[in-house]
Amino acid sequence: MADRENNQTAYKERQQEIIRKAALEAERLPLLDSGLWFHDDVRNNFYYASYLFAAAVDETLELPIAREEAKRKAEAVLLETVLLQNRQPGTELYGHWPLGLNPVPREAGYHELPVEIMGSLMAWFCKQYSGRFSAALRIAFHTAIGHVYRSGFFRKPVTTFGHHEAKYTAAKLIFGRLFADDELLEDGRHSLELTLAHIRERGMPEYGSLPWFWHWVQAFTCAWELEEDDSIKHTLSEMLDYLWNERSQWYLQGAWAGAHSRGWPHDVPADGNVLHDYVQFGDFRLSEGMPRTEYAGFLCYAVPEQVRTAALDRRTPAEVCRQTEKVVAGAADRQAPLHSYAYITADYAAGGMWERVEEFDNEQLRWAYSLPVGAAEGVNRLYFFHPGQGYYPGDPRHQSEHMEVLYHKNTVIALFPVPAGTENTIVGVLPKGEWVKQPSALFGFAGSVYFAVYLSHAYELEERQSYLEVTSADMPGGVVVEALSTGQAAELGIKGLRQFAEAAAQHAPEFTAGDKLSVQYTSRLSGTLLQLSSGEHPQALISGSPVSFDHYTV
């Protein structure tokens, strides 16, 4: 009980840190002619105004600003934001808001996305703070929430088990409860139970999907806080326990190890969207930048102690072997299972998805090494890929399908069987640190980890703002990466980057070009022979045996 109380106190302190930082940023930002701070996304005005208002009315929070003035400013932005809603029943997208607001917010077209999460968060914020609202703001909030309910945007069946439907489900529960709509509430209960049963049985189709995983967490936490029925609240607790257990599996001090089905620029190449992790786990330092505040400073569900322990205690290296499957709406047959792997130590993690998947906006991050957040200057990941649809220089996402992979503990092997006539340059991301360059290899030290990066071809190295970019042309070819923590290196008698580089240079992999591209490498850490080949029938061998997924679990 004492531990739980201590955790609750720590959660509150970290949330107040976020509230204070966001509020001071909001107070500092100049208002545009529209009376808003942001025109890129209407929700950002709502989030920052919420923080400024909450800070202004919290007498326990020390602020170097005038509270009444800050409260008035927050109320003005909240009111202007709320009044951008389509309040005309019977019109298209009734009850919705615009998303982008340029050039004139009150003339912007309405969009289906903002209300999905903002509608539920408005209901929560109104319940918590409406007693401190001005009369005009209170009326505006209540009116807007009524329009959201009558819009019925959430009255949709669950078919694909993604983040949109998760938000619909939470909204059914929230607005069903708020407006005493028993039929809607029962629909929400059914959708919740159906979703939970599906992801327990088959895994989350949106594996490592950022930032949308945090919309799952916020939507269901919001519903959990507002729910009064013990049975529904218990099922919401089961859902949140599942989500946070899923997060804990891939957690390393704010980093999300392994593969991602989606990743926005604040999630790839660096783990930047970390506020919910910070509140929940608090084992890394919060950076100055907060690229996606949303409601991390307000909503927190205290996870079971075993989930916290799994996330925080990485003293013993662990392999995570998970299975999931995509869902295609209307498809009669189940999709083939996908297999995700990670090797996580106290100092780094490595892993990815064995299968290539065509994800929305082609945002799959197939594999990566991850350092703890803040362990290195700038980007905390290392990975290579062949650019695909949507890629442009300086945005190292959007990978092509031309890659075969092998993962084994601290080692990742990737081959790039790029067809003739296709752009044949691969791109790599390295964390900043100390790097020794050789003609077809790079040996480095970042955080507290040594990296050996072997390429089949020569490369060029360019320093970007927050990472080092490697480009290597004339594919087909490949890359082998092995990582060692300082502790692992010491067990091999290695101390210092120079000694590591000298030893690694004598341990290069064997690449074979031709119709069947192949590579073999013996891991320094485990002594295991790893072999990977491409072609019509790609093959990945560990100690001479094909990779088996028999031990992968949902």
Task: Give the topology, please.
Blueprint: H1 2-28, H2 42-57, H3 67-82, E1 97-98, E2 110-111, H4 114-129, H5 135-151, H6 163-178, H7 182-202, H8 213-226, H9 230-249, E3 251-252, E4 255-256, H10 275-280, H11 305-312, E5 318-324, E6 338-344, E7 349-353, E8 367-370, E9 381-385, E10 404-408, E11 411-416, E12 426-430, E13 434-438, E14 441-446, E15 449-455, E16 460-463, E17 468-472, E18 477-485, H12 486-491, H13 497-505, E19 510-512, E20 518-522, E21 529-533, E22 539-542, E23 545-546
Antiparallel strand pairs: 1-2, 3-4, 5-6, 6-7, 7-8, 8-9, 9-12, 10-11, 11-18, 12-17, 13-14, 14-15, 15-18, 16-17, 19-20, 20-21, 21-22, 22-23
Helix pairs in contact: 1-2, 2-3, 2-4, 3-5, 4-5, 4-6, 4-8, 6-7, 6-8, 7-9, 8-9, 9-11
Folded structure, characterized:
The chain is of the alpha+beta class and 554 residues long. 35% of the residues lie in helices and 19% in strands. It is built from 13 helices and 23 strands. It has helices spanning 2-28, 42-57, 67-82, 114-129, 135-151, 163-178, 182-202, 213-226, 230-249, 275-280, 305-312, 486-491, 497-505; strands at residues 97-98, 110-111, 251-252, 255-256, 318-324, 338-344, 349-353, 367-370, 381-385, 404-408, 411-416, 426-430, 434-438, 441-446, 449-455, 460-463, 468-472, 477-485, 510-512, 518-522, 529-533, 539-542, 545-546. The strands form 5 sheets. Strands 5-6-7-8-9-12-17-16 form an 8-stranded antiparallel beta sheet, with no helix packed on it. A hairpin with a 6-residue loop joins strand 20 and strand 21 (529-533). Helix 4 (114-129) runs parallel beside helix 6 (163-178) and helix 6 runs antiparallel to helix 7 (182-202). The longest helix is centred in the N-terminal third of the chain and has 27 residues, at 2-28. The protein is globular and about 75 Å long. The model has no long low-confidence stretch (mean pLDDT 96).
